[in-house]
Amino acid sequence: MTADVSNFYYGAVTPIAAYVMACLGAALGLRCTTRSLRRTDRKANWLLLGSVAIGCGIWTMHFIAMIGFSVGGALVSYDSGLTLFSLAVAIAVVAVGVFLVGYRGASRANLAIAGTITGVGVAVMHYLGMAAMDAHGFVQYDVMTVVLSVVIAVVAATAALWAAVSIQGLWSTLGASLVMGVAVTGMHYTGMAAVSVHVDGVIESSQSSTSLLGFLLLMLVGPFIVLLVAAVIVMFDPDMMGGSEEEPVYRSAPAYEVPQAFEVSQWQPRQQPQQQPYEATQQPQPYEATQQHYADTAAPAGDDSRPEGSYASW
After folding, report:
1. What is the Cα–Cα distance from 119 to 95, expressed in whole angstroms?
2. How would DSSP label each residue in 198-215?
3. Within 13 Å of residue 280, how many CA atoms lie on the same side as its CB?
4. Quick one: CA torsion of 192, 195, 199, 202, rounded to 10 degrees?
5. Cβ atoms within 10 Å, residue 144
6. What is the 3-state secondary structure (H, E, C) of 149-194?
7. How far is CA 291 from CA 198, 279, 287, 294, 312, in A?
8. What single DSSP character describes residue 312?
9. Choice between 263 and 23, residue whose per-residue pLDDT is larger
10. Model confidence over 58-70: pLDDT tens digits?
11. Most buried residue, 11, 134, 186, 307, by CB count within 10 Å?
């Protein structure tokens, strides 16, 4: 028989918590990719940390939302190995997209390739997580709704990768992470809308079973710690939280500007004071008058009364 399926067993708590984790992972990932554009010496490390943050954020969002998933009349359980494998897939596909745009730029062709790979990979992660669920029945999907969820995942991944290399400001990053959280969470609940479960029989159980809830919370501990560590790294990195509008180092430096004091176009020759013609300032004395002057200043021979410094005393 077809069981009643609900994605909001705990009300609005699980979707809100899932959205918050998706936004947190996106914000940390964007800040890490911003840092990679400024520090080319450790670019790969920052891109890897950003990939892990985004991947863990998406995966954590998925399983927090799955806490609120219930199947009427069935006891839901999860395969731990397949669940952890879906986490590895999420991180891997996000890393492929982030490294592509991080090293090859955000051209249209590169964004299309990276966004498609990452979006399809995120959708695969989602349905791997669903495959890890055992509802003691047959799970069926509506094909058109599944296709729609994949399209949403590809569009969201492309937008996220574009934002990772294009948005540098802190507040712009936070705004982009809020939009990305809506897209990722919307993709999840679109995919869940395609689910219908046909149970084998009636099984008396409660969705708030301690074992089920404990398993899901245990699965969330690791990714949550990773996000916490990434948040600490981002918060204690002054260049990432401050100076958010700084140009990335891979861009060309602005052309050298000649200081205004040395601009040739503003140089003016120094104005020299006008001088009067030589004839107007000094009239040469005739040769005879000069000789007569020296003769007048000379004292008679034998006269010691001539003053010191006179011409005759030299």
Report:
1. 12
2. EESS-----TT-HHHHHH
3. 3
4. 40
5. 9
6. HHHHHHHHHHHHHHHHHHCCCHHHHHHHHHHHHHHHHHHHHHHHHC
7. 139, 22, 6, 5, 13
8. G
9. 23
10. 999 998 888 888 8
11. 186
The CA-based dihedral angle spanning residues 233, 238, 239, 241, taken in that order and rounded to the nearest 10 degrees: 80
Can you read off the two tokens belonging to residue 295? 């003769």
What value does the CA radius of gyration of the chain take, rounded to a whole number of Å?
41
At 168, the amino acid letter reads: Q
What distance in Å separates the CA atoms of residue 296 and residue 251, rounded to the nearest whole number?
87
DSSP-assigned beta bridge partners for residue 197: 139
In this structure, what token pair is assigned to residue 256?
A: 């050298």
In the block, which residue shows the tokens 């969201």?
156
What are the Cα distances from residue 286, in Å, to 87, 264, 282, 289? 112, 50, 13, 5
- Packed helices 13-38 and 143-166: angle between N→C axes, nearest 10 degrees: 40
State the Cα angle at 144 between 143 and 150, rounded to 5°: 90
Amino acid, res. 90: A
DSSP letter (8 states) at residue 265: G
- Residue 294, pLDDT > 70, answer no
**pLDDT tens per residue across span 25-57:** 988 888 888 888 777 778 888 899 999 999 999
Q: Are 8 and 185 in contact (CB under 8 A)?
A: no
Interacting residues of 238 by C-beta distance below 8 A, sequence separation 6+: none
Q: Which of 124, 140, 51, 48 is nearest to 82 (CA)?
A: 124
Nearest to 25 by CA among 166, 227, 272: 227
Separation between Cα atoms, residue 229 and residue 306, nearest integer Å: 105
| Helix locations, the chain, DSSP H | 13-38, 43-67, 80-104, 108-131, 143-166, 170-193, 210-235, 238-241, 278-281, 287-297
DSSP state of 301: T
HSE-up of residue 253 (Cα within 13 Å, Cβ side): 3
